[in-house]
Design the sequence.
């Protein structure tokens, strides 16, 4: 799941980012409304977390602009204002939820989960499976032949991405965009390193099973249980 935080208090923004990444979200940050607008219209996110008091374009204006452009991503406002007319306004113009600063991080997590649950039917979180590899988004548990795999947050995010796009070729850039954030250079070796970790845990640890994660030289990676087509 990929999130965007738009918050001008940089320390706060980065600490939320760090905490959410520990919960297996991929997180981008923008420090003003304009940058937030650009990111939210160009990239695709599962939830936007918007501060209301932002430089250049405030959080309410930003929401109105995004909704006018048919960006329907769920929005949570973060704000120091707890006036009820502000809350009502935020929800009226197309926001989905509201947290008053200082907020409890656990509450933010609970609200994120609730928003993701009531999102589109595709986010209803069915169990993902390919061959004997199974991922349950509700429990965040990954198993192979019924054995629980011990994955780090990034490894989990990679497996989830592949299982959501089985048999498709995913480029290194796509992996970086969905699992890391836009700060990481796609040319850096980070994706290859993590592919190695994931392959060791899902395939090499199960030598009697089909080896699912394949490298397609010069193109990317694919998770598939189909035999390679001979050229
Ligand atoms: Ca602010």
Sequence:
């Amino acid at each position: 799941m990929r999130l965007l935080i738009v918050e001008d208090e940089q320390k706060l923004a980065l600490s939320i980012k760090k905490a959410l990444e520990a919960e297996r979200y991929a997180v981008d940050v923008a420090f003003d409304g304009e940058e937030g607008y650009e990111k939210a219209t160009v990239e695709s996110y599962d939830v936007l977390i918007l501060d209301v008091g932002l430089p250049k374009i405030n959080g309410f204006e930003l929401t109105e602009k995004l909704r006018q452009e048919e960006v329907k991503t769920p929005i949570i406002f973060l704000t120091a204002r707890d006036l009820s007319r502000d809350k009502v306004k935020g929800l009226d113009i197309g926001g989905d939820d509201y947290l008053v600063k200082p907020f409890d991080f656990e509450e933010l997590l609970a609200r994120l989960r609730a928003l993701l649950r009531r999102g589109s039917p595709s986010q209803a979180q069915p169990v993902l499976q390919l061959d004997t590899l199974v991922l349950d988004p509700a429990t965040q548990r990954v198993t192979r032949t019924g054995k629980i795999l011990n994955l780090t947050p990034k490894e989990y995010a990679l497996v989830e991405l592949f299982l959501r796009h089985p048999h498709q070729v995913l480029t290194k850039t796509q992996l970086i965009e969905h699992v890391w954030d836009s700060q990481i250079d796609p040319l850096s070796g980070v994706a290859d390193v993590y592919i190695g970790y994931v392959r060791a845990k899902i395939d090499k640890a199960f030598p009697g099973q089909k080896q699912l994660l394949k490298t397609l030289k010069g193109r990317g990676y694919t998770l598939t249980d189909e035999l390679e087509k001979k050229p």
User: Anything to note?
Assistant: The first strand starts at residue 2 and ends at 6. The radius of gyration is 19 Å. DSSP finds eight helices and eleven strands in the chain. The mean pLDDT is 88.
